[in-house]
Design a protein that fits this description.
Radius of gyration of chain B: 37 Å
Strand content of chain B: 5-15%
Order of helices and strands of chain A: HEHHEEH
Largest interface: A-B, 25 and 28 residues
Strand content of chain A: 5-15%
Number of helices of chain A: 4
Number of strands of chain B: 22
Structural class of chain B: alpha+beta
Distance between the termini of chain A: 34 Å
Strand order of the largest sheet of chain A: 1-3-2
Number of strands of chain A: 3
Oligomer: heterodimer
Helix content of chain B: 40-55%
Distance between the termini of chain B: 58 Å
Shape of chain B: globular
């Protein structure tokens, strides 16, 4: 499914990469992406959650309700084995893509 | 990929989704130190987000299917006649297939209710001798008690274990409520070999099986429920068991069979141990057992037969030299699957019916596929427009397939209801000897089969339309104008109609053959007249009628009262049932003054003791000499032979006046007459078995007696009279009272059943073929309205136009009929074994089938042809 929908592929990559560092909840993921990209990337929060659920349904991540340190219930996501494999795949294709685009830009 | 896991991923509830988003809002507010409303704004439209989250979890195919279903429903509502016709036709096909599957599942497919049933075999000897019952070579394997006990303990090499059933006979329990039951005597390991455990109490033990041990009983679940209200305390209670061949015994119940237990062969309400060990070797004869065995792992049935072969001589050692000589030349072992032994030749009939119903279902499918193609043609422009506004070809083809699946589903629902009703009818008319027919029901197994059938049907009827949509959904269709579009070419539709006609003809031909065969069977002269005869059979209890005097008193009184009943024309008693069933004939014939060779001496002749009015009662013709007179009972013993018996015993010599006897040292009987042969074997198509009638002595009655009464009274009244007489004489004896013609009808119930069913399928198929042809021909006329108009404008007469339509349809009818004949020619050879005195290629039957087909189909074409003849050329041309 993900192959066709390219705009979502980027978000998917970011989510999976974030979760590779450890389990996190939706807000945490959004926050991490912002901070890690030094606020260059800002996650469209409205599309973050459908994307999370899509990944959950596809079996790349697992979800579980936990209680956060300040006592709030949150849905915590965790990378599955398949998710890890998936991450490696898109990471590779992403690097090729960006590398290609970079070269084209340089040449022009 | 974890496809299965993905299918079963838990979908979060709406509340969970809401809570997740709320948590986000709260965390964002806290983190950015803004108020919740601002955090919420940042997340965007919450409702919209939640909707997108939800959509992730709804499978796409389901969504699409819902949409397709919606479209389909709308289009059905626009054309209810189409939907109704298609659903009904398919429901008929699916309903009858399901019902028939349910009825025949136990005969053909369902595993037997034993542990590892495919390792169970029936094993025994085929004597190779003509059967005393049918005269044809013995076809049922049997085992003999002496070799069974001496040689098969432990089980012979190919088998893990062997077990046996001895005789099954009628027995009665209780004094207050006599109930007629069947008692089977079995080896003590019987249930263990079958892998059946008792529901209550215990199984038999080897100690129960010792000769002279106290008798114990294991009763059926049904008996336990009906007589003891399923009370566990029934185990330990005593039955007083009464049978005609043993005095009353008080028998403790030790166990109850499980509810789903079935005897491997026949039925039984009570199991008793055979108690035959140690065997009495001095006994001159051997009892016949039915033996079952469990094959060792890795031994095939064929190999088991080979492995047993060397043991044949050992087995025959138990026979006296004379028997050994006749057996050793011809006897063979037979090992075959238990199912084959249970089902016997019923399997052939079952396959025949399954074949017929599959053909019928195919016809129904073809019919509906045809209707659907017509709709595709009609909706061509709709499809074209849809394609134009962006629906993919695949999507449109899928829509057509979805429509057919929904049709099949709707039809399947109705079909299941229909199947329930049909199954009752089938069971009602099915031959009682069809194994398991009484237990047939629509259970989970049948339901699953029905669902598979429904899915299959959906795909079959949808495939062609889907392909044709796929091809047609181009731009071209949009450009062409209205009705004269070539569209889905009628060629395909005609091909379908032709197929339908061919299949129908095959069914019609088959049923014509069966009907002719049935006609022949029913028309066979039995040698006696069955109308207005009522019979009564009774078995006297060995306890209350211990001596011949007791028994004679009962029977003579029974006969006297029956004779005195108003309306009685003649009444007679016999020691054997009406001449309609298997009776063991085990005679050792002697003719005074003539030495018989062994073959003749042991020829299977039925001996029947009868009272004088026997020939009048059954209206058996005495061809020479005389019948019996009242005075014969007290004078010299006399006999009447049937013609075949006379031929066997006397060759060509005259029999009258000679003396014969059938039991060594019994009195001689003088032959006073020769009577017509009777179809007396229970299989009316078999040759008459020779029979000898001996005058019944006044004191010679055994436990069983059979009264027959010819009456001028209404048969129902006669039955009531007889019942009253029996109750007056002894209310505790169970009696069976029946009309003779009902018994004769039952003999032909199997051919009746198959002929009836096949004819029903044939008639329905014919109706479907007619409607299919009608619809195609009508479509053709509609499509060619313009051409017809042009031709008529050019001077063609209505007759010419009509003739053209009929001629075209006729070509397809003829093609279908030819194909059908070829099909029938191949298929009916399988039918031959079911036919009596008719060849599978019987010209009369096939002519009848073809003529019926032609008449009905040309009638169906008549209306479209008439329609074509009435086309108004001006209107037709202007319509463009």
């Amino acid at each position: 499914m993900g192959h066709r929908e390219n705009p979502q592929a980027a978000l998917e990559l970011l989510i999976l990469k974030t979760l590779a560092a450890g389990p996190n909840h939706g807000f945490g993921i959004a926050l991490h992406i912002e901070e890690a990209s030094s606020a260059l990337l800002r996650v469209e929060e409205g599309s973050l959650y459908p994307a999370l659920h899509r990944l959950d349904k596809a079996g790349f991540i697992d979800a579980e309700w936990i209680v956060t340190p300040n006592g709030r219930r949150a849905r915590m996501y965790r990378l599955t084995k398949e998710g890890r494999k998936r991450l490696k795949e898109i990471e590779e294709s992403w690097t090729t893509l960006t590398e290609g685009v970079k070269r084209v830009l340089r040449w022009a | 990929m974890g496809v299965m896991r993905r299918w079963f991923r838990r979908r979060p509830t709406d509340d969970e989704m809401r809570e997740e988003l709320e948590a986000h809002v709260a965390m964002r507010a806290e983190h950015d130190r803004i108020d919740e409303a601002a955090a919420r704004r940042r997340l965007g439209n919450l409702l919209h987000t939640r909707e997108s989250m939800r959509r992730v979890w709804i499978a796409q195919w389901w969504d699409a299917l819902r949409q397709d279903a919606h479209y389909t429903w709308r289009s059905w509502r626009r054309r209810p006649a189409f939907a109704l016709a298609a659903v009904l036709v398919l429901a008929l096909g699916l309903g009858s297939s399901t019902a028939l599957f349910a009825a025949l599942d136990r005969v053909l497919f369902r595993p037997l209710p034993y542990a590892n049933p495919d390792r169970l075999v029936s094993v025994g000897l085929l004597s190779g001798l003509p059967s005393p019952i049918s005269g044809q070579a013995e076809s049922i394997e049997m085992m003999l008690d002496k070799p069974y006990v001496q040689l098969w303990n432990p089980a012979p090499a190919p088998f893990e274990s062997v077990t046996a059933v001895g005789g099954t006979n009628e027995c009665t329990i209780g004094e207050a409520q006599p109930a007629e039951l069947r008692c089977a005597r079995v080896d003590s390991n019987f249930l263990r070999v079958l892998g059946v455990t008792v529901a209550e109490g215990r199984d038999f033990t080897p100690e129960d099986d010792v000769r002279g041990a106290p008798l114990v009983a294991v009763i059926s679940h049904a008996l336990w429920r009906s007589r003891y209200g399923a009370d566990p305390a029934a185990v330990g209670r005593t039955l007083s068991l009464d049978s005609t061949n043993a005095p009353v015994e008080r028998v403790p119940i030790v166990g109850v069979l499980p509810a789903d237990f079935e005897m491997p062969i026949g039925t039984a309400d009570i199991l008793l141990p055979m108690r035959m060990r140690p065997l009495d070797m001095k006994q001159p004869f051997m009892s016949i057992l039915t033996a079952f065995a469990r094959l060792k792992r890795d031994v095939t049935i064929e190999r088991a037969g080979l492995m047993l072969a060397p043991q044949l001589t050992d087995v025959l050692q138990f026979m006296p030299p004379a028997g050994r000589a006749t057996w050793s030349a011809r006897a063979t072992w037979r090992v075959r699957p238990l199912r084959d032994r249970r089902v016997g030749d019923a399997a052939r009939v079952a396959w025949l019916l399954i074949g017929a119903v599959v053909v019928f279902l195919l016809i129904a499918c073809v019919n509906v596929a045809n209707l659907m193609l017509a709709r595709v043609a009609e909706r061509q422009r709709e499809f074209a427009i849809r394609a134009a506004v962006g629906a993919g070809k695949v999507r449109l083809a899928r829509l057509a397939l979805a429509e057919s699946l929904l049709l099949a589903l709707a039809a399947g629902g109705i079909g299941l209801l229909l199947a329930l009703a049909l199954l009752n009818t089938f069971v009602g008319i099915a031959p009682s000897r069809l194994p398991g027919i009484a237990q047939a029901s629509i259970d989970l197994r049948v339901f699953v089969a029905a669902v598979v059938l429904i899915a299959f049907t959906g795909v079959v009827i949808g495939l062609w339309p889907a392909v044709s949509v796929f091809r047609a959904a181009g731009w071209k269709a949009l450009r062409s104008t209205g009705t004269s579009s070539p569209g889905a070419r009628p060629r395909v539709r005609f091909a379908l109609v032709t197929t339908q006609i061919a299949l129908t003809l095959a069914l019609l031909g088959g049923s014509a053959l069966l009907l002719r065969s049935l006609w022949n069977v029913v028309a066979i002269p039995l040698g006696f007249e069955t109308g207005r005869v009522v019979t009564l059979s009774v078995g006297l209890s060995a306890t209350r009628y211990p001596t011949p005097a007791h028994r004679s008193a009962y029977f003579e009184e029974l006969l006297a009262r029956a004779t005195a009943t108003p309306g009685t024309v003649a009444a007679a008693l016999s020691n054997a049932p009406a001449p309609l069933g298997a009776t063991m004939a085990d005679a050792s014939s002697e003719v005074e003054g003539r030495s018989l060779d062994g073959e003749v001496q042991h020829a299977p002749i039925r001996i029947r003791q009868v009272t004088p009015e026997y020939f009048d009662t059954f209206r058996i013709r005495v061809t020479s000499g005389r019948g019996f007179a009242a005075a014969d009972r007290d004078g010299e013993p006399v006999a009447v032979l049937t013609e075949s018996a006379s031929r066997i015993l006397f060759g060509g010599e005259a029999a009258l006046g000679r003396r014969i006897r059938f039991v060594t040292r019994s009195p001689w009987h003088r032959v006073v007459g020769v009577a017509d042969d009777l179809r007396n074997g229970g299989d009316v198509t078999a040759d008459p078995a020779p029979e000898v009638y001996l005058i019944a002595p006044r004191d010679g009655w055994r436990a069983n007696g059979h009264l027959a009464l010819r009456t001028t009274a209404a048969p129902a009244d006669a039955e009531a009279f007889l019942r009253r007489i029996a109750v007056d004489l002894d209310p505790l004896l169970p009696v069976t009272i029946e009309r003779l013609d009902a018994q004769v009808t039952r003999l032909t119930e199997r051919p009746r059943f198959t002929a009836w069913l096949l004819s029903a399928f044939g008639a329905l198929a014919l109706a479907l073929a007619a409607s299919g042809l009608y619809s195609v021909a009508s479509y053709l006329v509609l499509q060619r309205r313009r051409d017809i108009g042009v031709r008529m404008a050019m001077g063609a007469s209505p007759r010419d136009v009509a003739r053209q339509v009929v001629g075209e349809a006729g070509r397809w009818i003829i093609a279908g009929a030819l194909l059908g004949c070829a099909l029938g020619w191949m298929a009916t050879r399988a039918l031959q074994s079911q036919l009596y005195d008719v060849q599978a290629l019987d010209p009369r039957a096939w002519t009848a089938a073809v003529v019926t087909l032609a008449v009905v189909l040309f009638t169906a074409v008549f209306w479209p042809a008439r329609h074509a003849a009435h086309v108004d050329p001006i209107a037709a041309l202007r319509a463009e």
